Amino acid sequence: MEGPLQTGSFRWMKSINKSTILNIIRFHGPISRVEIAKMTKLTPPTVTNIVGELIESGIVLEQKRGESTGGRKPILLTINQSAFQVIGVYVSAHRVRGAVCNLNGRVVEESERPIPPNPTAEQFLQTVQEVIQRLATGIQQRQIPLLGIGVGMHGLVDPDQGISLFAPNLALSDIPLRAVLEERFDVPVTVENDVRAMALAESWFGQGRSLADFICVHVGSGIGAGIFSAGSLVHGPSFTAGEVGHTMIDAAGPRCSCGNTGCLEAFASGPAMERRAQEKLRHGSHSLLREQLQGEWEKLSGSDLTVAAQAGDDFAQKILADTGRYLGIGLANLVNLLNPRRIILNGGVFAAGDYVLDSLKKTVHERSLTLPAADVTIVVSDLGKRAGTIGASTLVLKKMFQPQ
Ligand SMILES: [Zn+2]
After folding, report:
1. Which of 69, 161, 277, 348 is the most exposed place for a label (fewest CB within 10 A)?
2. pLDDT band, very low/low/confident/very high, at 1 (cuts 50, 70, 90)
């Protein structure tokens, strides 16, 4: 039987100078004490003292000696990436996915469970705790201190209180995630909207690195955006900033789950794309998928469309291109409003690659104003399915490295 779960403390990060130095080592390491003093404008004795404390805590390591032009080679400092671990939990429409990450965002262990259909708040919280418990047991066995738990939760989240205000896919509201998980696991817990957590992951470990203005757009059961503006995540006073799925792209369009008509989500979410394809097949559209589904149109999935498109099926290619066009209209609105440097796309539909991206990019460029359209690059996330759990883990890392 392993010992009790070890936990790290944020207390030693209370000093601004300490977190500044730690962040410089994270960004610029391996780096010498002299260079840190130059970059921070702190006195060399202050740097030496603080670095000493960081080394003692186990988070910073002295590495091999660096290059020197004559004289003694300086000792270089790096982050000890495996000194602590964090747990990131991503709650999507139907599943809870969890991962243990090192300080550099590398995934060490994963676990996931389906959420029972129409769950009560207790059943839902039980599922989340089971995923975390399983990962915490692994951390315990490895005897590495756990720094904290981050949760990226779909729907409306109050990150200040750590509450899931409304989770539309679960039909649950006011779930006190932070209070319940801190009570159970006795580590700091941070809760954030799932797509905002993904945007944070892109900012630290993905294609948003070193960009102050970018947008991460996730297309799944819903469509949401995590907006980075001037280097910070945008929340809005009601925490609803980024709800691009509920911007209208056609006033005469189908009804959306929010009660409005013609929202982007009602055209281009995963389920909306599947419904469009099913409807057309039901009405006799010619496709390779007819033989495969044998009249059971409701079994058609987004990945069936990708496979059929790759096999040369015109029908599937058209459905995907239409989806790209709808998404392009929504993204053009974001480009005109926010002038981002980059849009980073995430979600199952992008496995279809150019079948969806060609029309998406073309539409963004046709429908955005010339200047911002020329400045924006559109890419697919290379964090893939792990963006949610890595993002949730990054919530904890951000608290440690950038506490202000
Ligand atoms: Zn809507």
Report:
1. 69
2. very low
Query: Is there a domain that residue 3 lies in?
Result: no
DSSP letter string, 118-174: S--HHHHHHHHHHHHHHHHHHHHHHT--EEEEEEEESSEEETTTTEEEEETTTTEEE
95 CA to middle of ligand 1, Å? 22
Ligand 1 centroid from CA 75, angstroms: 56
C-alpha 98 to ligand 1 mean position (Å): 29
Asked if 303 and 309 touch (Cβ cutoff 8 Å), the reply is no
Tally of domains within the chain: 3
* Cα 262 to ligand 1 centre (Å): 7
Do 266 and 179 have their domain in common?
no
Residue 131 and residue 54 share a domain: no
User: CATH number of the domain that 270 lies in?
Assistant: 3.30.420.40
Find the 260 Cα to ligand 1 centroid distance in Å.
5
> Which domain covers residue 158, as residue numbers?
85-204+387-401
Task: Write the pLDDT tens digit of every residue in 148-177.
Answer: 999 999 999 999 999 999 998 899 999 999
Q: Tell how far the Cα of 240 is from the centroid of ligand 1, in angstroms.
A: 13
Say whether both 213 and 118 belong to one domain: no
Exposure of 364 in the CB half-sphere (CA atoms within 13 A): 28
Per residue in 372-398, pLDDT (tens digit) is 998 999 999 999 999 999 999 999 999
Helix (H) or strand (E) holding 378: strand 377-380
2 assigned to some structural domain: no
The model's pLDDT over 57-101, given as tens digits with 9 standing for 90+, comes to 899 999 866 566 666 778 999 999 999 999 999 999 999 999 999
Give the number of other CB atoms < 10 A from CB of residue 283: 8
Query: In the predicted model, what is the mean pLDDT of the chain?
Result: 93
The C-alpha atoms of residue 306 and residue 274 are separated, in whole angstroms, by: 11
Residue 74 lies in a domain: yes
Residue of 196, 197, 6 lying closest to 84 (CA atoms): 6
103 in any annotated domain: yes
Locate 109 and state its tokens: 């262990």
CA of 348 to the centre of ligand 1 (A): 20
